[in-house]
Amino acid sequence: MARSFTPTAYDDLDPDRRPSLAAALVPVLAVVAFLGIGSAVLGLDPHPPLLWSIAFVGAFGLWLGYDWDDLFDGIANGLVMGLQALLIIFTIYGLIATWVSAGTIPSLMYYGLEILSPTTFLPAAAVLAAVVAFAIGSSWTTVGTLGVAFVGIGAGLGVPAPMTVGAVLSGAYAGDKQSPLSDTTNLAAGVTNTDLYGHIRRMRTGTAVAFGLAVIAFAAVGLQISGSIPAGQITDIQNGLTETYAITVVAFIPLVVTFGLALRGYAALPTLVAGVFAGAFTTILLQGVGFVAAWETFMYGTAPESASETVNELLATGGLTGSAWTITVVVAALSLGGILERTGVLAVIAHAFTSAVRSPGALVAGTGVSAIFINALTAQQYMSIVLPGVTLRNTYDEFGLDTDQLSRAVEAAGTPTGALFPWHAGAVFMASATGVPTLEYAPYYLFAYFSPLVLFGMALTGYTIDASPTSADAGADGAEASAAVASGGDD
Description:
This protein has 491 residues and is an all-alpha fold. The chain has helices at residues 21-41, 47-64, 68-81, 83-102, 104-115, 118-136, 139-156, 161-177, 183-191, 196-224, 233-244, 253-263, 268-287, 291-300, 309-314, 324-342, 345-356, 360-378, 381-391, 393-398, 403-417, 425-434, 438-441, 447-461, 469-487. Helix 4 runs parallel beside helix 22. The two termini are 36 Å apart.
């Protein structure tokens, strides 16, 4: 579970320092402009645009009357929310290196090339990732372990890496959303005061429809790439694997240890650390590597020198030190999100949204939009769940909607969409772990589009939106009254 804090509500903001809606939109538009121009026009890494954004929003906060201590508190809150993500990123980088050196990932690649075909690979990868993520409750662990192996298998089968990553992410996030072990699933239920299994049941139909559509689409794509394997490519890759690593089922010891602990309900971080130790132990036991060399691999990564360039490229890793680029992006993005929250920018925008809502369906759809919006601004999926989850609870009561409607909306739109934004913690991790840039896998990460679209479709048609008519009417009247008050206030 993520460490949490209570976000600042609109009514808790000091009226003398509370920005108007127009003023609150200024730093938001600045962030969008900086990130867009920096990445798309200037071709910069995310770091400089994020620094520009932090400086601009910080200056905006000083203009509102906040001092440095206030802004630093916001940064600290943002980092606290993302602390688990940062530690997992550190650990995953070392884990991938040890699993490569242990022969775990090479063995998965070798046997996968024996079993799978280009036609069945994409839907099979999506389904297998969903099953594993559901079982262990972690999309990140699934992608950082099995996902890396799937990229190698896909390369051998002639499947483009962005397609493979899109399929794996689709399955990993779909399974994660339905798992009672998932931190985001527990967080969504917790911040909305919803029973965990009630929350999961409410998500079930939408998740099944969205993931089903994604699997069908991947099956259709698989038919198009059938028979495209270059001659001898699978044999070359398998030969490269066997000449560099001892390929055997014994190499699956780290896999068994990690997923076994996850299935027993242990938290993600200690489970992954156990996987690192198992990987180092298996490297020493099976691959004939010394103790010091095994832990140097954990620190500095792997650089295989087989006869297959494909194997060398796929299994080259950076180890713990290779996480620096990723970690610095995530720290900057979390800091930016924390300042936006602390200065009241997000609270003011959320208040304007709730004042404009007129129907239960619009409330649910708008909640989904707000979760995506917060994902983009704060670069943290926890924020996309906590902020609307806490802010909109009373509004859902006014419209006669049960809290599981709110928990479903924030997770269906918030959890899977973060990996679409290149500066988001989830996207930075997924791109780094798989070696495929966000903008390359984004077109194939179908579940991220289908999940919120199915939510919006349900909201607009009223399907599964169970509201008490009397309460909904009262909620609409309350929303109109709120809008009237807002029109005469700071906004």
